[in-house]
Design a protein that fits this description.
Elements (H helix, E strand, L loop, with lengths): L1 H12 L7 E3 L1 H16 L6 E5 L6 E3 L1 H17 L8 E8 L4 E8 L6 H6 L17 H11 L3 E7 L3 E9 L2
Helix pairs in contact: 2-3, 3-5
């Protein structure tokens, strides 16, 4: 386990430089869902997807962004206490920034303001000892930033969380 922690730290500190290519957002969402299903050992997640018809591709390293989205979906799934889902995923063009805005939301346990501010810090977890390492959102934010994107978290205790990702079109 110590070697896995060191590997997580190294991946966070020095991830590979992105190799941006034109990538279809719907394809990345599908791949991220498949990865999240493997991570959560769930055969089929309850996911509702809405992608705008006029949505074009994004210019990102698709493997890095798929990994980031999968980590966010995994957190959303794990936010439910008794059941799994639903997780809502929406993608639209943000006309104010000309970026693609991807929102991933859940109706899970949510976070208070103090917790949501710390959520992207490495090794932070609001769960008791024995939980996972707390690298999912930190790693997701790092990969999104490397790809010239932004991550924002809105959350309310007992109402759920929405993580918004802005990704470059050019």
């Amino acid at each position: 386990e110590a070697s896995e922690i060191i590997e997580d730290l190294m991946s966070f500190a020095e991830p590979p430089q992105p190799r941006p290519t034109r990538t279809d957002i719907a394809q990345m969402i599908d791949e991220a869902i498949q990865l999240a299903e493997r991570k959560t050992n769930t055969e089929e997640l309850d996911i509702q997807i809405e992608v705008a018809d006029d949505l074009e591709s994004v210019l990102v390293d698709s493997a890095q962004i798929v990994s980031a989205i999968a980590n966010i979906i995994t957190n959303a799934v794990e936010s439910y206490r008794d059941n799994i889902g639903p997780v809502r995923i929406a993608a639209v063009i943000d006309t104010s920034t000309e970026m693609v805005k991807l929102s991933i939301g859940d109706n899970g346990c949510g976070m208070n303001e103090k917790t949501s501010q710390k959520a992207i810090q490495p090794f932070f977890s609001s769960r008791p000892a024995g939980r996972k390492r707390g690298m999912g959102l930190a790693y997701a934010a790092r990969l999104i930033n490397l790809n010239n994107g932004f991550l924002d978290i809105e959350s309310e205790p007992d109402l759920g969380t929405t993580v918004s990702i802005s990704l470059p079109r050019e």
